[in-house]
Structure formats: structure tokens, C-alpha cells
Amino acid sequence: MLSGLMMNYQLTIDRILEHGNRLYPYKQVKTKLPDGTLHKYSYRDLFRRVKRLCNVLEGLGVQPGDRVGTFAWNNSQHVELYFAVPGAGAVVHTLNIRLFTDQLSYIINHAEDKVIFIDATLLPLIEGLADRIGGVEHFVLFNVPHGGIETKLLGRVHDYETLMAAADEEYTWRVEGENQAMGLCYTSGTTGHPKGSLYSHRSMYLHTVGSCQAAAVGVTENDVVMPVVPQFHAMAWGLPYAAVNVGADLVLPGPHMQPSALAEMIETERVTVAAGVPTIWNGMYHDLKQNPRDISCIRALVVGGSAMPRSLIEAYEKELHVNVVHAWGMTEMSPLGTVSKLLTHHMDRPQDQQWDVKARQGYPISGVEMRIVNEEGRELPWDGTTMGELQVRGPWVARAYYRLDGGDDSFTEDGWFRTGDVVTITEDGFMTITDRTKDLVKSGGEWISSVELENLLMAHPQVLEAAVIAVPHERWQERPLAVVVPTLASEPPRAVELRRFLEPQVASWWLPDDFLLTDQIPKTGTGKFDKKVLRERYART
Amino acid sequence: MLSGLMMNYQLTIDRILEHGNRLYPYKQVKTKLPDGTLHKYSYRDLFRRVKRLCNVLEGLGVQPGDRVGTFAWNNSQHVELYFAVPGAGAVVHTLNIRLFTDQLSYIINHAEDKVIFIDATLLPLIEGLADRIGGVEHFVLFNVPHGGIETKLLGRVHDYETLMAAADEEYTWRVEGENQAMGLCYTSGTTGHPKGSLYSHRSMYLHTVGSCQAAAVGVTENDVVMPVVPQFHAMAWGLPYAAVNVGADLVLPGPHMQPSALAEMIETERVTVAAGVPTIWNGMYHDLKQNPRDISCIRALVVGGSAMPRSLIEAYEKELHVNVVHAWGMTEMSPLGTVSKLLTHHMDRPQDQQWDVKARQGYPISGVEMRIVNEEGRELPWDGTTMGELQVRGPWVARAYYRLDGGDDSFTEDGWFRTGDVVTITEDGFMTITDRTKDLVKSGGEWISSVELENLLMAHPQVLEAAVIAVPHERWQERPLAVVVPTLASEPPRAVELRRFLEPQVASWWLPDDFLLTDQIPKTGTGKFDKKVLRERYART
């Protein structure tokens, strides 16, 4: 093979930090601290502290390839860990603070985390399982209140800022090459054990540049980026890396995830790109009704994790003058897969139809390939109606799970990742998730999309949240059941009203057999409806 | 080393075409044919014809690694070759149609081109050297007029469309991996032989994604892209790949490079991104004064190749409502290095100061590292005033020239490419070219920037073009001499007026010792001032 004569320049995460520091040393990282005050420092400070932190890691005995856990909200120290752990050649393993104790200790032990960095506000959650994670050699606490903190984690505990103060600021990156592992993130897994995706420097670098494309998220130096999506969810969708890559200011909410606190930060810090799950934006929308604020500084409200109801997209655009960018991805995809931005041929359509487009999950960004297949694995057409399982591949897609050899059918023989999503794709490449393969309602041999019913129900003015599950049925095998949380501001809706509301919008055999009211829908560690719990609870009714 | 568990997805050019065809089969490639009519076809047509062309190449005996020359204007066949030659595992070698016969035959023989694809409108230029390029096995002509064409290239000549019509549309890419060579481009070289940069699939793929970043050129599906920069100059700055990568329409001027023809295409095709050298835009500006057209559809007039005078940037923005994006790159850099877009802290400055910023070559895009060094190779500060030689590195920068082992000092021992440009860089990362190392005027041990004097002179209302060269001087070693082309519309300026015009703007010892009027300044094959010729002509005066 005749090879090109271009530099063998390795695509590694330290390059992104070097670039950000060299070009934009004056740009800022702002964190809302636990006490509500705003902490600010510059990229230059970030850079220096990352180098110190690398020395701290070496001082704790962290070797290249070791896994280093984080257990924290979105804040500056967590960003420091995002760069320092890979910079020291190790693997930053973001632990989901919302997991149940069993899952958390499983993950820590499965990853063999050597050190865990803990946001002191979350200490009790780790203390509760301290005796089950004996392999962890050190716990390092940050956000420790003045006067210190009492902890049961005896002997193995350090104070982050004390270690940092003692560390040297000179450090040479220990990155060995672009294929080196740099990050580890477990899916919460509603069935079976959580499974880990092990990112490489190359995959995360390419994800960063890929997501910075104008046709993707397209962050620039002119942006103020607020990842509301937690840093323990799929690397906060890569936004901390994207921001540093182009010199955008970073705004981090810390533990202040309440709707009113988020809206206030957006308004006062002039956030231009905010990213989070629909639940967050749904909450903020309802809060803004009571406590109006001007959040029109946002040029892209990025929504992912699950589908944003079309009604909410419309409300944000029409009432709040905020451009919504629907996105879709998965932990196994680093995570960005698609974004839903209008194409040229949508531009002169009526606004109503534009919102229809924006309610889809969108087109794959350059770097992500998609295909849909049926149950036999045969490829299906992109016609906007044919439902099939979505499979993807690309340079930032996982090819296997960490330490899970065999017994896993997530990857096809020809090298694609099975997403587990059932989708349609239009002729012009817009993907819409109709369901998870496991959440589909299979009624009389036909498929009913639980997600579509949920979205329709959540557009009802008296409905705050709605989940639809399959319940066993003697004749039809399965039938849909709707579980509904009413809005606080109104009378709860009656089942007959909800049925009448749906009737003109779906085939009659799609109509749920029952509508049950509840105070709240159980959620998984990632904030999604926990349908496993719902099925257990309602299958017997 | 612990490796990540991500897909080993190769970054190759066929992926870009597959993506463009899969997502945007209905988008268009439009070419202005030699007869002035507009030829249009879709990405789907492009895709199919590329596959056919791969079979044509195999039919002509082209093997992976072979070099295949192109000798053509910007048109659809040239775009087909951009994808088909690499898709067949071979190397597309773009020949500069403006080179002198000696250089052209040298390059063809040095590259050992097996086949050359020729725009029939340019046939005489190749015929003139047919007996000196005996190694070329086949010549394939396109844009052949009805009724055929007579040629002296006996025996080895084929008709493009005849071969295409006979070829199969089924083809499996023969790309072996991302490091495989895919493109070859020689610098015109004002001294010594031309030198070739051999691009790899990986470097061109990364250049494509890098340039699609919002902070770079940032092309999207909403754009209509017109590369006026010839496809034989550094892959038309990568724009054909960028357009297909995101689904932008492509508009190609063919041989119609006259200012009025370009302005007409921009207006009628609603071009949003047009890219070319300052000479082109200077010509178009003056033409638009006589023949007004609305070209405000352009959202980014990308200018590179040499510096655009600040006065011209201002004129485009103020009078024509066109946003100018200054860029800088080199053949050895695939070519994109920097772009000059306003940063946040420029936003509230007066417009006058914003044009100062836009007249700089700009900040390095993510993926490109820069440093400046003095004659001893010591790194210099980014303070906006210290001049030094610019060195760069990155995944799309050359590490060597094709078949030029040893005797070349273009690459440093620690792996950087010496650009040969003398520049300053501001604290916030904006690079300004002050000169080429070889064009600097070294007067009494101090450096005088020929480029800065030229830009100042070209801002004079009676000056169309100005070149400044060093002439030997007994006392000061060298002194600057200005060669000036007056505008047609006015009286030629007198030397004393030009001197008085410069006096308040530069140090007195920078003032050229003489100002000579001429009808035109000799240009190199890439359209730049040919200072070698000027020095030969005026050194004796």
C-alpha cells in the first residue's frame, strides 16, 4: 500500500486542552458552588490545575490504564478530572450518583476503580457502600465545607485542595497513543448488570471535532455552554471537551438542578447552548410560567436522553423564543448520533410542519452511519413509515463492552452496534424513535409504539407526565396501559377524556385499555421512565 | 497500554461520499459548461458516476497506489475524479494548468502519472508537451465538443463519456486503510523544482471534518458552495469534500472565471459560501462597480492564497453586504490552517476595529498547532508585534515531500513544518503574515515587511496592485522598491503622492526608495505576485 506522507499526529485529549489553553486562556469556567455562590476561573487556571491534578494522581499511585472513579455533580473539579485522568494515561470512570447501591458497588468493583474522587455533598451515598468496595485505595473529597467534614471512610480519605496545593504544576502528559483508553461509562441497564463503554482518546477526540461541526452542535468561541446533562451521563454529551476545543465559556450548575436555579443561571450568564433531558426542560418550562425570566439568549436548547414532546418544543419556540435542537445518542456512542436541524427544503414550510421535523430525533451527523433492520436482520427502507431496529457504526461507537466477553448480542457480525431502538427514517434521513425494542407493545402481531402514545398524552393540558407499558392480554398477547401524572395546576383528567383526546390521533387498536393516575412515575438512574418497575407494579392489575 | 473498545472505523474518503449520497441524494452539483450553459445533476448521479469511473480506472489498468493526473477547471467530472481515484485506491494528482511547460512535464514525470484526465478546453497545453511525458499510458478527454476534437495525442486518447457509458455501475471501494495515499499536489515553487504533498485518506477526512467545524468554515446542508479557487490548487481548499460531507449544493464555474461571470453565478445560484484568492475578489469588486449585482446571499466570502487588503474587506462588507472570512493555509496543510472570525471580545468594538481583526489571517482552527520561532529556532512570544517564522503541525500537515529524501529543510527535527511565512501572533491567537521569509526586506539589520507596504499601497484609491521587493543597497544591504499598477479609472499616481500617503503610516526607514509604475505585475502559476521575476527585472535598476 502506498501510504500518504502526512504527520502521524495522534488524536488525543491533551491536544484539546493544549489548544484551548493556548488560544483561549482568558475564557472562563463558572460553577455554582453548593452554597449558591458562583466560582469562576480561567482556562489558564484550568490548565494549570489539570497539570497539578496529574501529579496528584501519580502521587496516589495511579498508573496508565488504571481506572479512576468520579462521583460528582457538574463542576470545575469534575472538568479537571475529565482532562487530568486521561492526561495521566488513566481512565476517567464517571459514576452515576443516581444508581442504587447494588449497581454502584457492582460497577466500582467491576471497573476496579483505584481511586474515587467525590463531591463532598454526595459523600453519604458512597459511605453507605464503603464496606463493599474494599478495592478502592483512595477517596479524594472536594467541595469540603469550611471546618472539614466527618466521614466513615477512615484511613483512605484525602482532601482534594490539600493535595492540589502540595502538587507541582509541571507535568508531561503520559498519553501513549490515540487508541489508549481514556474514559469509562456504564449504562444504567434496566435489565441485567450495567455494561461499560471504554472510550479511547481517538474516539473522544473525533467525537469532539464531529460535534463541533456546524451541522452538528456547532459550538464556537462565541458560545456560553451549560451542560445540564450530568457529567456522569455519557461524558455530559462531550460538551466539556467541545467547549475547550473551541474556547466557549463553560457554565456548570453544580448541585443546583432545580428548574428555577437553572433558569436564573441561563439568564444571568447569557447561556447560548444548554443541554439536558426533556424532564429538565419540561420542569423549567412549567417553572417559567410561574416565574418568568428571559432565556432567549439560548441559540440551541439541546435535548436528548429521551424524546422531547413536540408540544414542548413548540412551547419553547413560540412562547420562550428558544431554538430547540433535538438530538439523540447513546452511552455506547460517546454519545452523539443525530441532531434535528431544519434542512433547506424545510425552510419555506409552515412553522407547524417545521416543529414536526424538529420533534424527530434527526439526521446522523457526519461520522455516524445508520441502518434499520427487521427481526431477521434484513435492511429496511428509509420511507418514514417502516419501523426497524436501528444499528449504527462510526469512529466513536463502541465495538464491545468492557470485560464482557461473549454472551452479548449487542454487536452484529458485520460490525454494527444494535441500539435497541425501534425507529423509522424518512427519505431525507430524519430518524424518529418509535420505541425501545423491549418497550414496544406487541398487540395481535402488530407493533404499538409506547413512546408515541406518551408524547400524545403529554400534549394534553392536564397531563404532566405519561408512561405507556405493555400488560399481558389473553387474546391480544399484549395491550397498552397508560400511567399518568396530572399537572398540579389543574383537576386531574378523567380516563374518558384522555381516551377522547387520543381517538382522533391514533388507530383505534392503539388506544390504551386503561389510564391510571399516579403521583409520580418511577425513574431510572438516568432519569428515564423505569418501565421495568412499572411493568412489575401494573402487570398484576 | 489499555486500549479503548471503540470501533476501528477507518477515516477514508469513500465514507464521505457514502454519507453524502445516503443522506442528501437529491442535492445538486451545478457546473457552468464551456458553452456557458448550466449542467446540473444530483448527488445520486454523482455517486453512480463515481462508481462507474472507478470501473473505468480499472479498465485503464490503474492499480491501487498509481498516480492519476487531472488537468481541468472546476467542474463535475473533476469532482468525480476527486472521489473515484481515491475510491479505486489510487492517487488523484491535480495538475496546475497555469504552470509553465517545463514545470508541468517535470511534475508529470516526477509523479509518474499513469493516466491523465484532461478538460478538452485545455488540450493544447498538454499537447505541447506530449513528447516529453512518454510515461503516461492514457489520456482521457472530457468536455469534448459535439463532433469530436482533433488531437496530436495519437493512440493514447480516450473519450471520458464513451468509457463511462460502457462501464458498470457496481463497484466495491478498493480503499485499504486510512493511511493510504489519496491525493498529490505540487507547490508551484518559485525556487527549485516543485515539491509534492501526498495526502492520505485520514488527513483529508480529518481536514474535511475539521473545516466543517462551526469555528472554521462551517459548511452545512443549508449552504450553496462555490469554490472559485481552482481544483488544481490544494484540493480547492477541500470544499468539494466538505460540501458532500454535509450535503451542501456545489456550484462550479468551469472555465468562466471572469469577474462578471462569477458575480452572475453567485447572484443566480444564491451562493452562500464562495472561496478564492484576493485577486479574484478584487477583480469582481471593481466589476461590480460597473455592473451592479446583488451578491448579499453570500454569508462567507472565504479569501486565502494571499492576504486580502483591509480596504477590500471593508469595501465588501460596507458596500456589498458580504461577510468576508479571511483564511490562510498551504498546499502542505491540505490546506486549511487559520480563519479570521470575530471572537466574543471583538463584538462590541467599532466596525473599523473589527475590520482590522478580519484583515489578519486569523486563529488556527482546532486540529492545527502553531508556533513562531526566530532564526535560531527559539520560540517567540504571541504579543502581536514580535515577528518570527511560522511553524505548524497537525493531522493534516505534511511530514515530508513526495520522493524528496534528504536535502530538504522544510521540516524541523522535532516534527513541525516550516511554513516559510514570517508572522506575528496576537495574545488572543490571531496570526498576521508580515512576509515570506524570502521576501522580507532586510535593511540595516532590521526587517521590513513587503506585504504590509503592499497592503497599505493597495488601499490608495489610484492603486490597483502593488508589489514590494528588496533591491540590493550598498549601505543598508537591502532597500524596498515598490512596483505599482494604477487603476484604470484614474490618473496614475505620482511617486511623491504615494510616499506622502505612506509617511504617516510606517516608520520612515520603511518608505520605499522608489515607486515604479507598470501595466501588470507578473504572477506565478498560483496567481501570486512572482517576486523572483520582479527581482530579476528590477535588481539591476
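qc> Chain B has 15 helices and 25 strands.
qc> done
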